[in-house]
Amino acid sequence: MNYHFVESEYDKAKIGKWTEIGKSKIAYKFYFKGACCDMPVLEKMRAKIDNGTLYIEKGVPFHESHDKIGVCGISIDFVMKKDEYPNYKKLIVSVVKDRE
Predict the structure, then answer these.
(1) Domain boundaries, the chain
(2) Is the Cβ–Cβ distance between 99 and 63 less than 8 Å?
(3) pLDDT tens digit string along 5-33?
(4) Residues 6+ positions from 58 with CB-CB distance below 8 Å
(5) pLDDT tens, 30-84?
(6) How do strand 46-50 and strand 53-57 relate by DSSP bridges?
(7) What is the DSSP letter of 53?
(8) What are residue 82's phi and psi, to 5 degrees?
């Protein structure tokens, strides 16, 4: 599956929804909020589709101490080609807790 994650603008109306990008791509918008040290890392995020479910691994690195204090938020789009999964609207989206 060809896909990538992109940091995007916060748009409350689009969070948790699929959006068409041109004729060939689609995007699913996520918004993650929480401790700054537990924010997803775009370069380490992974995705897979299994039995009609899109599993997203946030790519949060393991850390012994919390060196960043406060609350953070990040808006991320999961982008893939529409023709690779034409029934994308029927996918169940699940964010998996992961630690490296």
Answers:
(1) 3-96
(2) no
(3) 999 999 999 999 999 999 999 999 999 99
(4) 32, 40, 41, 45, 95, 96, 97, 98
(5) 999 988 888 898 999 999 999 999 999 998 877 666 666 778 999 999 999 999 8
(6) antiparallel
(7) E
(8) -65, -35
